[in-house]
TrEMBL record:
Lineage of source species: Bacteria, Pseudomonadati, Pseudomonadota, Alphaproteobacteria, Rhodobacterales
Subcellular location, principal: cytoplasm
Keyword list, A-Z: Cytoplasm, Molybdenum cofactor biosynthesis, Transferase
Protein name according to UniProt: Sulfur carrier protein FdhD
Gene3D superfamilies, A to Z: 3.10.20.10, Cytidine Deaminase, domain 2
Record's function text: Required for formate dehydrogenase (FDH) activity. Acts as a sulfur carrier protein that transfers sulfur from IscS to the molybdenum cofactor prior to its insertion into FDH.
Gene: fdhD
Species this protein is from: Meridianimarinicoccus aquatilis
Presence of keyword Cytoplasm: yes
């Protein structure tokens, strides 16, 4: 482990009942490997499962306390309504003793968010040893500590002094990280793509509960593994990146699915994570497409029901699905593309 506490899978992540799987108590699995073994065993013996969440290592928990609140108002007719709205709170990220950024977030998985943000911004590299992650819920601060001070802290300090705004310069560092980048060869079966879309859109989530939120899902083959949500799509992908970094999960055989737009920053972050495929139910930006084409990333958008559009990396696609058997998505799921 690289400092963040081990994740605690939800009690409903695979089985519909509390049980002990291969000696690993549900909700107390010690590692990603334990969960994968448990999932395979679950599938082999065909125990009762909740089809919408089975297979996830981390799945959304719309019922978790503190992520939403009930707010009263009136509708267009003047009738009183009570709806759930997503909470939003600041989280300040430190790298050792230097304050890096304050992000607005829903507040879950702060350690993964901090790790992933620093990783995706190029402030943590493979050679950096994370010795600890301290989260103070009251102060809304998370501190990532490394064995030695990184050169990124000094670079950020100098850029902030000269420009007064670190955002653009940090983005420039992300672009520089693409130089010489080669993504691994991979194949993507359209049958897997349709299966992922079908399952993700039917997974209970904060979006279906309250809306106004984005989701990012790390997938392998036809199986979604880690589903993160946040008020910003970049926060959601950073949480996934943080989990991958902490667990040491390889990226070469993964697909990243997002409910948000396929922007340049989403493409860059996916490429820097080493993931060869990025898919979304939403649309593209021109620069996002251009960067994907340059780095060899497979970029798929407007993935809804039987339809999708691939604007980069089509060579990875294996068209093995008979679309006549692919279901159109339910109306409620279509709302995910509107956030």
């Amino acid at each position: 482990m690289n400092g963040a506490p081990p994740f605690r899978p939800r009690a409903n992540w695979c089985l519909g009942v509390d049980a002990v799987i291969l000696g690993v108590e549900v909700g107390k699995a010690s590692s990603y490997r334990d969960c994968r073994c448990a999932i395979r065993w679950c599938e082999e013996v065909q125990l009762p499962t909740r089809s919408e969440t089975c297979g996830y290592v981390i799945a959304p928990d719309p019922t978790r306390t503190g992520l939403t609140r009930a707010v009263r108002g009136v509708d267009h007719t003047g009738a009183e309504q009570t709806i759930s709205v997503v909470e939003e709170r600041p989280l300040t990220i430190y790298l050792n003793s230097r304050e890096i950024v304050t992000a607005m977030t829903i507040g879950d998985y702060p350690e993964y968010l901090a790790l992933g943000f620093l990783r995706n911004q190029g402030m943590l590299s493979d050679g950096d040893v994370v010795t600890g992650i301290d989260f103070d819920e009251e102060l809304e601060v998370v501190v990532v500590r490394t064995a030695v001070e990184t050169d990124h802290e000094d670079k950020l300090a100098r850029k902030t002094r000269t420009s007064g705004c670190a955002v653009g310069t940090v983005f420039g560092d992300m672009m520089a990280g693409l130089e010489g980048l080669t993504l691994p060869p991979a194949t993507l079966r359209t049958s897997d793509l349709y299966a992922l879309s079908h399952k993700i859109n039917r997974t209970p989530s904060l979006y279906l509960e309250a809306g106004a939120i984005h989701g990012t899902v790390l997938c392998q083959g036809a199986e979604p593994l880690v589903y993160m949500e946040d008020v910003g799509r970049h926060n959601a992908v950073d949480k996934v990146a943080g989990w991958m970094f902490d667990e040491g999960v390889r990226a070469a055989d993964k697909t990243l699915y997002t409910t948000g737009r396929l922007t340049s920053e989403m493409v860059i972050k996916t490429a820097l994570m080493g993931i060869p495929v990025l898919a979304s139910r939403s649309g593209f930006t021109a620069w996002g497409v251009e960067i994907a084409q340059k780095v060899g990333l497979t970029l798929i958008g407007r993935l809804r029901g039987q339809r999708f559009v691939c604007l980069a990396g089509e060579d990875r696609l294996v068209r093995d699905a008979d679309v006549s058997f692919v279901e159109e998505e339910p109306r409620k799921s279509r709302r995910k593309g509107a956030a």
